[in-house]
Amino acid sequence: MDSQRTTLLTLPDLHAITPFVGSFNPHYAKVALESSAWVDDSRALSDKKRAFFFQTGHELLCAHAYPYADEERYRVTCDFINLLFVFDETSDDQTGEGVSRTGSVFYNALTKPEYDDGTPLCKSTKEFRQRLLKHCRPLTYQRRFAASIAASPPAFALIGYALGIDLPDDILEYPAMMAMYSASADMVCWSNDLYSYNIEQAMGHTGNNIITVLMTHKGLGLQEAANYIGEHWKTLIKTYLDAKKSLPNWGVKIDHEVVQYTMALESWVIGNLNWSFESLRYFGSTRHEVRRTLVVRLHLRQIEEGDETDV
């Protein structure tokens, strides 16, 4: 480690700004064990990454993000978030060519039933696809899920599946619905960057973090960038609520499903906030103290920016 002095960062209280009500999936205890065992049995992760995997609590995130899902659908959401972890951890240790190859394996296994390259990632992805298609029509799967493979969008694409509904494209593409979707996705992404910054800055992995982007392009200090996220969060909440108020009536059936869908978007936002302070992922053993005080003690830098090697 270098001699950088430890400093403090005060987080904006995103919980206080967020009017959404959280809930928790009642199938968590049983399904969490099943899904994590499924990943462990795949042998797709090294021993070091297996240890990290069991600390991340993806099933806990899904219990917050999809509290309304029945047992089978909740299991699929857990499997998918866990599968994304396996994909990310596999590609993190690869060069550009290797990452491209791994991405192709992941996509082909999701979209081509006959594809099989014999790798653990392919096998797990095909097993996930089979479970998902049990309650998801092939055309819906292709149109809503397989077409959007990048962390938050496909996780949001599982909302309709987890609810057991399939809203028509013209409803989902209605401007107010799209504004709500975008604001919700931004809230999840911005809060994740805020909470993960301490770990990332310690490892020198800040290039894709919104805090570093704000500091670089707006000339802000670290605390100013965190404060900016708090102010922007208020804008995102207002955008979401204004769009929600402007939704028209489409008839009893569609209106009921739209209410369910908006509840599900809100569950993702507040659920992600709650999980961030329950899981060990961002704040470790200090998570409850950080939630109470909103003060983060920055870790000493372990790797300087630009010092990482591509292995």
Automatic annotation (TrEMBL):
Top enzyme class: lyase
Annotated Gene3D superfamilies: Farnesyl Diphosphate Synthase
Keyword Magnesium among record annotations: yes
Source domain of life: Eukaryota
Membrane-traversing stretches: none
Cofactor(s) of this protein: Mg(2+)
Pfam assignment, any one: Terpene_syn_C_2
One BP term from GO: isoprenoid biosynthetic process
SUPFAM superfamilies: Terpenoid synthases
Family: Belongs to the terpene synthase family.
Protein name: Terpene synthase
Source species: Trametes cubensis
